[in-house]
Amino acid sequence: MARKVHVDSVTHTVVKTSLAPAAIGPYSQGILVGHTLYCSGQIAIDPKTGSMITGTIVDETERVLENLGAVLRAVGMTYENVVRCTVYMTDINAYAQVNEVYAEYFNEAPPAREAVQVAALPRGAQVEISCVAVR
Question: Which fold has domain 2-134?
Answer without folding.
Answer: 60s Ribosomal Protein L30; Chain: A; (3.30.1330)
